[in-house]
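dumping this here so i dont lose it
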């Protein structure tokens, strides 16, 4: 299980939201370039960047992200307002390693099928596209975590798998940004029903003990953000864990 450090950007500032709410923003006295510089060493070659402006339909900081991307050797998993085939293609062409698809995958019945046909095909979709499964009290949430879908998370995953997708990022919204531990049972339940999917977990991961508890859930990776910026988990902890994980791979 690999740890992916998370960087959320709002107006080019590194921030974390609590529960995905824009009225609950914590801003950190670091910038994207300095974080990527610290991460660029053995033990980290992958980072997640969420464009919080993009999530609201404002892509004004994308040129800034493209410039940073071309200067950094790190692989970037990008998310934030990706709601068209053209945007996915643009981001892949720009060099982003993986693209997270959320709201559009839930609200547009034909989007994932069209994306599979036009961009990736069943054999490579998992390498380019990550499907977001954001849950709150057992419901599948979308549109900035403000709306609940009629489809249940398990049924949504099943639909996506049928279209050739098998990498998912599951956010436990109730714990996200609260530093109160992770919902291990949630991820175990998904893996028990779909043991072959590549599952990424995020939300509430706070301590090394949390990481160890998630390690038994057969996850591909976990995403940690606020715990790093609040000095609960250090960059060195992340690097050491990842190096050991590679040794045991």
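and the seq i came up w/
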């Amino acid at each position: 299980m690999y740890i992916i450090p998370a960087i959320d950007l709002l107006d080019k500032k590194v921030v974390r939201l609590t529960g995905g709410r824009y009225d609950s923003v914590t801003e950190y006295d670091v910038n994207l370039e300095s974080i990527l510089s610290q991460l660029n060493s053995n033990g980290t070659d992958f980072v997640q960047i969420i464009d919080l402006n993009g999530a609201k339909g404002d892509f004004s900081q994308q040129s800034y992200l493209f410039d940073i991307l071309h200067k950094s050797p790190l692989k970037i998993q990008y998310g934030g307002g990706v709601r068209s085939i053209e945007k996915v293609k643009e981001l892949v062409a720009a060099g982003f390693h993986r693209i997270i698809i959320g709201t559009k995958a839930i609200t547009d019945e034909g989007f994932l099928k069209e994306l599979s046909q036009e961009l990736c095909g069943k054999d490579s979709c998992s390498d380019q596209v990550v499907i977001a499964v954001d849950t709150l009290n057992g419901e599948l949430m979308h549109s900035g975590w403000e709306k609940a879908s009629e489809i249940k998370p398990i049924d949504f995953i099943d639909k996506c798998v049928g279209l050739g997708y098998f990498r998912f990022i599951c956010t436990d919204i109730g714990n996200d940004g609260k530093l109160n531990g992770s919902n291990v049972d949630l991820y175990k339940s998904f893996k028990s029903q779909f043991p072959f999917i590549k599952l990424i977990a995020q939300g509430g991961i706070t301590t090394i003990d949390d990481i160890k508890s998630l390690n038994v859930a057969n996850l591909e990776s976990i995403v940690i953000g606020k715990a790093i910026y609040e000095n609960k988990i250090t960059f060195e902890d992340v690097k050491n864990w990842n190096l050991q994980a590679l040794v045991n791979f």
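Residues 2-247 form a domain with the TIM Barrel fold (CATH 3.20.20.70).
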